[in-house]
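The freezer alarm interrupted the setup, so I double-checked each line after restarting. Inputs confirmed:
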Amino acid sequence: MYRLIITRREVLKTSGAIALGAALPGQANALGQMETAIRRVIGEAEIRKGKVTLDLPPLVENGNTVPLTVIVDSPMTKADHVKAIHVFNEKNPQPNVVSMQLGPRAGKAHVSTRVRLAGTQTLTAIAEMSDGTYWSDSQEVIVTLAACLEDLI
Amino acid sequence: MSARALINVPRKAKRGEVIEIKTLISHIMETGFRHGTTGELIPRDIITSFTCKYNGEEIFATQLYPAIAANPFVTFHTVATESGTLAFHWIGDNGFEMTEEAKIAVE
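Predicted 3D structure, all chains:
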C-alpha cells in the first residue's frame, strides 16, 4: 500500500534539495563539467601529463583575482611549437577559463593572466602542440573568499 | 564605450630577441551569474576576445570567459623581428571594441 501521509521531515528534505539545486547552478554537475568542457574543445585526443607548468598560488584569500601563469616547454620553432593553451576549472559556473592561440613567432610559450575562482578547486591547463599532441598540468588552489557567486553589496 | 588600456612593450629591442608584452584594460567583466539587490540576474558584460598583430600579422589571440578577473590582464611573449607597430584589439559584449597601438624599434 502507498503511504498517503507525507511527513514534515520528507517535505523539508525535498524542499531543501530543490533550494540547494537552485542556489548553486552548475555545481550540481561539478564533477565532470571540466572533463566535458575539455572534450568539447580538444575532441577525443589523448592528453599526456608533462611539458606544461601551471603556476598558481596554492592558497588565495580573494578568489576575485588570482594570478595564473602557464609555461610550456617547447623550442617554439616552425616545426615544433605550441599552437594553443586552454585553461579549465572544476567549480566555477562555467568550466572554461581562457583559451590562447600562439605560434612560432611567440618565441617562448609563457603566458599569464588573472582569474576568478568560485571556491577551492583544481585547475587544468592543456597545451596543443604543432604535432597534434596534447599535454597538461593540474593544480589545486585553496580559496578563502570565493568569487562570482556573492551578491552585490 | 570607452575604456582605458595600459600596454607595456619595450621601446627598443635587438633583432631576434624574445620580448614580453603586458596588457591591461579597464573593464567590469560582469559574469552574468550574479544577482542584483532586487534579485534579478545581472546580464553578462565581458570582453570575449583579444588579439595582437605585429605589423599586420596576428601573433597572439585569446578567448576570454567570465572566469577572467575584472580589468583583464594578459601577458605573452613574441620575437622582435622588425621595427613597426603592435596593434592590440579587444572585442566584448554590448558592442565593446577597443584598439591600442605600440611602436617598437628593432635594431
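Quick read of the result. Chain A is about 20% helix and 40% strand.
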